[in-house]
Amino acid sequence: MRTISLDGLWDLYYFPQGELDIARPAGLQAAGLKPIQAAVPGNVELDLCSAGLLPDPYVGENIHLLKKYETFEWWYQREFSVESISTRLELVFHGVDCLATYWLDGQEIGRSDNMLIEHRFGVTDLLQPGRVHVLTVRLQSPVIAALGRTYDPSSFALPVNFEQLWIRKAAHSFGWDIFGRALSAGLWRSVELVCHERNEIVDMHFVTMAANERLANVRVFYQLAVEPRTLSGMLLRIRGTCGDSSFELTRGLKFAYGTIELTLEQPKLWWPRGYGEANLYTVTTELLYEGNVLSSRTDMLGIRTLKLLRSDVTTLERPGQFQFVVNSVPIMIKGSNWVPMDLFHSRDAGKYAEAVALAADLECNMLRCWGGGVYEDHAFFDLCDRSGILVWQDFAMACAIYPQDLEFQNILRKEALAVVRKLRNHPSLAVWAGDNECDEIFLDRGLDPNDNVLTRKVLKDAVFQCDPYRPYVPSSPYISPEAYRLGTPDSWPERHLWGPRDYFKSRYYTSANMHFIGETGYHGCPNLSSMERFLDPGSIWPWQDNHQWITHGTDPVGDPDSPYRFRVQLMADQIYELFGVHPDNVQDFILASQISQAEAKKFFIEKARLNKGRCGGILWWNLLDGWPQFSDAVVDYYGRKKLAYHYIKRVQQPVCIMIDEPENWHVTVKVSNDSVAAASGPFRIWDADSGETIHEGTFSVEANGLAELAKIRAPYSVQRLLLIEWTVNGESNGNHYMMGSPGFSLERYRGWLDAIASLPHAYDAAQLGK
Questions:
Q1: In whole angstroms, how far apart are CA 457 and each of 47, 454, 628, 635?
Q2: How many angstroms separate the CA atoms of 425 and 50, rounded?
Q3: What strands lie across the sheet with 516-519, from one edge to the other?
Q4: For the domain with range 213-268+270-301, which CATH number is right: 2.110.10.10, 2.60.120.260, 2.60.40.10, 1.40.20.10?
Q5: Average pLDDT over residues 403-407
Q6: Can you tell me the mean pLDDT for 110-129?
Q7: What DSSP element (H or E) covers 89?
Q8: Tens-place pLDDT, residues 648-676
Q9: Which residue ranges does the record assign to the Beta-mannosidase-like galactose-binding domain (predicted)?
Q10: Which residues contact 475 (CB under 8 A, 6 or more apart)?
Q11: Does 561 have pLDDT greater than 80?
Q12: For residue 55, what are the CA distances in angstroms to 92, 185, 661?
């Protein structure tokens, strides 16, 4: 097939929905409307900004100016032509936000109501070579559509975003604690005309059934579109290469769908980051007839097996598990939650490469695509494939009880089938999860989450139908029937560890019993240079009663009753917990907040690694902001790294020496090895103030192991900073441990920063918070 891009500049007409009686494209000119230029891919708010009709919605409280446009409708229009007509033509809209009607030359060709999946319309009989055609797309208000729906007592959402229940948009666009409210509209992904041929390879799907370094069995599923009278003479040839490893086979065809069993000797396996190379085979598949190539396609194949070993509950009497196993090796997951790259999703794809590079630099081996966002495109998964980063993919539902009726079930089933078929070939894709925290919402409302037909039936069946060899979890966290009967979060094998958000070493965090931490985080102030970009000069300080801080930290909708308004105070209280003061100037506030966040995130990761064997991993919240804000992210919207980034980079190295919390007057020094090779080398621990060596020696730890190295006396009343350095395979690594109980002196810690920064993987401490 070949494609003709329809991206670029379109005309954009807009007006309050219902104000003008326009139901067809001809009415636009008749009403005398004047368009502005719109970019495709794009979002209407960005077009209004480019036309000088809106100020930057990321600055100050401008985000609230978007409220007025929530009840508008938007009409996109452009001309195009084609030189020749092939057998079958389709207009493909890869992302349309959201409630759309489509016309070609004034003739309606279809409708769609889902932002999250692509939409295709056959136009073979409507196009003529050389003729100028007019394509029009009308987008109607999601708020008005939501108001027209019927709601039942079984449904629930937070007051600030109840409209999300029936409208298949990114849930965060209705307002969230990490994004401003921006309902948006637009052709946010590419538009193209696809010219099909008579014979095509429609789909190839590869599943590794068994694999080790000696032998691999790959099951190949193919789907063809072919002319019936030539089918019996057709051949399918599949060739793959990865370095010096290759395979080739040719099979005769009896039908347009089938499976092929492929056996490879000494295959190059795909491994998660830290455990080996993310080897990828380039696979070319050709459809042959009488020696001629009728159609071909190229796919990337990662040969790997993946299992998720999980129990429905965990108790003291019956300890459970939540463990990813790749190529028969238990993987210690160290990674982050992934939220959309931008409030306006047409910008997402342009940020993929930088964001995934940051995750790789931090040695993340998993990213969890959170259910309040969108399904990322192939480009994101391609980067994860090449980087050895597994992807946990939520279906797009979050923090609500969605409609349970048959109409919504069918909407969600259609969405799930489209998404699973699109993404299932990526070796990075590790697990499908039904939603984000919806089980918890059921529980909070006094309902049994196992009555949720959407995640227990609809999505489960869709995954089994299209991707039956990949794990599926009904929710994150999942509350099984037995866990529901036990009635305590301590019985959940996977949890989101938020709680009171108090001191990061409080009992809530240290006594948590889960096997996998799906979310946990801690606030950190962005750098001053970033704050100066999104706050008005008079609103940079003080933090108290600062409406712009609240808008960019807690309140997505500008509502005095918003449930999120406490978060600026929370950030200040977390500083107070650690240092016993509320800083009286912005630079000290930024630094103290970033220290608080960095120590907390480091502690959460170390806690998981020090419990290796029982704990299968941690996905901290979160890597990168999608709009300018005060948040848990370790890199702000403008790409500036907070202190936590540097601390995380050290404690996520495959081999890491850490110090556990005090017990019986001592702390224990341990080494964790998250790799497939044994490790050994010299190490030293010393006092940051005096330079005194506390302990030194040689460590040794088996592959994928955890070993104790020493015990150091540690009275609770003594505050000190211990520095750690070790060498593995000629490469030095560093870490530190803050001993004692708060409050610590901010001035003393400021003095420690240079010593911490100078450890291996060094950074410039003088630039922190700037």
A1: 41, 6, 38, 38
A2: 38
A3: 472-473, 429-433, 390-394, 366-369, 333-338, 617-620, 516-519, 494-496
A4: 2.60.40.10
A5: 97
A6: 97
A7: strand 88-93
A8: 999 999 999 999 999 999 999 999 999 99
A9: 36-189
A10: 433, 434, 435, 436, 437, 438, 439, 449, 452, 455
A11: no
A12: 32, 17, 50
Cross-strand partners of 547: none
710 and 698 Cβ atoms separated by less than 8 Å: no
What's the number of CA atoms in the CB half-sphere (13 Å) around residue 332? Answer: 29
Please give the C-alpha separations between residue 543 and each of 60, 529, 560, 633, in angstroms, as whole numbers.
Answer: 14, 16, 17, 19
C-alpha–C-alpha distance, residues 321 and 516, integer Å: 8
Alpha-carbon torsion, ordered 625, 628, 632, 636, to 10 deg:
60
Angle between helices 746-757 and 586-610 (to 10 degrees): 60
Nearest residue to 394 (alpha-carbon basis) of 490, 459, 322: 459
What does the block give as tokens for 654?
């495959």
- Superfamily of 655-739 according to CATH: Immunoglobulins (2.60.40.10)
Percent of the chain with pLDDT over 90: 94
Which 3 state secondary structure label does DSSP give 260?
strand
Structure tokens at 733: 């690594």
- The amino acid sitting at 277 is E
Count of alpha carbons within 13 angstroms of residue 673, beta-carbon side: 21
- Cα 101 to chain centroid distance, Å, stands at 30
- CATH for 2-194? 2.60.120.260
SS (H, E, C) 644-704: HHHHHHHHCCCEEEEECCCECCEEEEEEEECCCCCEEEEEEEEECCCCCEEEEEEEEECCC
3-state secondary structure 319-348: CCCEEEEECCEEECEEEEEECCCCCCHHHC
Q: How far is Cα 17 from Cα 72, in angstroms, rounded to an integer?
A: 5
Q: How far apart are the first and last CA of the chain?
A: 51
At residue 560, the pLDDT reads: 76
Could you tell me the residue ranges of all domains in the chain?
Answer: 2-194, 213-268+270-301, 655-739
Cis peptide bond upstream of 477, omega within 30: yes
Q: Do domains 2-194 and 213-268+270-301 have the same CATH topology?
A: no
- Strand pairing category for 366-369 and 333-338: parallel
Does a cis peptide bond (omega within 30 degrees of 0) precede residue 25? no
| Pick from 395-404, 457-466, 711-720: least confident | 711-720
- Cα distance between residue 408 and residue 559, in whole Å: 30
Query: How many angstroms separate the CA atoms of 242 and 176, rounded?
Result: 44
- What is the tens place of the pLDDT at every residue in 680-703? 999 999 999 999 999 999 999 999
DSSP string, 697-735: EEEEE-TT-EEEEEEEE--TT--EEEEEEEEETTEEEEE
Q: Note whether 568 and 593 are within 8 A (CB).
A: no
* C-alpha 729 chain-centroid distance: 33
The one-letter amino acid code at 26 reads A
562-580 pLDDT per residue, tens = 777 888 999 999 999 999 9
What's the pLDDT at 565?
Answer: 80
Distance CA 347, CA 355 (A): 13
Q: What is the pLDDT of residue 612?
A: 96
CA–CA separation, 79 vs 72, rounded Å?
A: 24
Give per-residue pLDDT as tens, 168-220: 999 999 999 899 999 999 999 999 999 999 999 999 999 999 999 999 999 99
